[in-house]
Amino acid sequence: MANNTTGLTRIIKAAGYSWKGFRAAWINEAAFRQEGIATVIAVAIACWLDVDAVTRVLLIGSVMLVMIVEILNSAIEAVVDRIGSEHHELSGRAKDMGSAAVFLAIAIALIVWVTLLWAHYR
């Protein structure tokens, strides 16, 4: 099952698959919706703040990292759920590790925001 599309057609198809992924995450994952709304607010605040470009990129990048990790966590959960609904130690471990990754991404975002805003406004 080789994919022989190249060039602009491949890019357009890839964008379509990405859009389907965003849509699936938004429809099926409450955490993604909550973090998505928080990200929109955080990006708006980062754009509104009177900070230099590097600070703005770090503020926005840190919340985008949360979204990336949440999408990966949702993908892990979907694959585990696809395999079976019965409880298995490895399935639980995979889901717990995905959740831990999201937690760390959120912690990083909070540390970045507090550190940069503290340094800017003190």
UniProtKB/TrEMBL annotation:
InterPro entries in alphabetical order: DAGK, DAGK_prok, DAGK_sf
Gene3D superfamilies the UniProt entry points to: 1.10.287.3610
Residues given in the record as a divalent metal cation binding sites: 29, 77
Cofactor note: Mn(2+), Zn(2+), Cd(2+) and Co(2+) support activity to lesser extents.
EC code(s) of this entry: 2.7.1.107
Binding site for substrate: 10, 14-19, 23-26, 31-35, 48-51, 56, 70, 99, 113-118
GO molecular function (one): ATP binding
UniProt binding sites for ATP: 10, 17, 29, 77, 86-88, 95-96
A Pfam family it matches: DAGK_prokar
Listed cofactors: Mg(2+)
Subcellular location: Cell inner membrane
Membrane topology value: Multi-pass membrane protein
Top-rank taxon, per record: Bacteria
Family statement drawn from the similarity comment of this UniProt entry: Belongs to the bacterial diacylglycerol kinase family.
The protein's name: Diacylglycerol kinase
Lineage of producing organism: Bacteria, Pseudomonadati, Pseudomonadota, Gammaproteobacteria, Enterobacterales
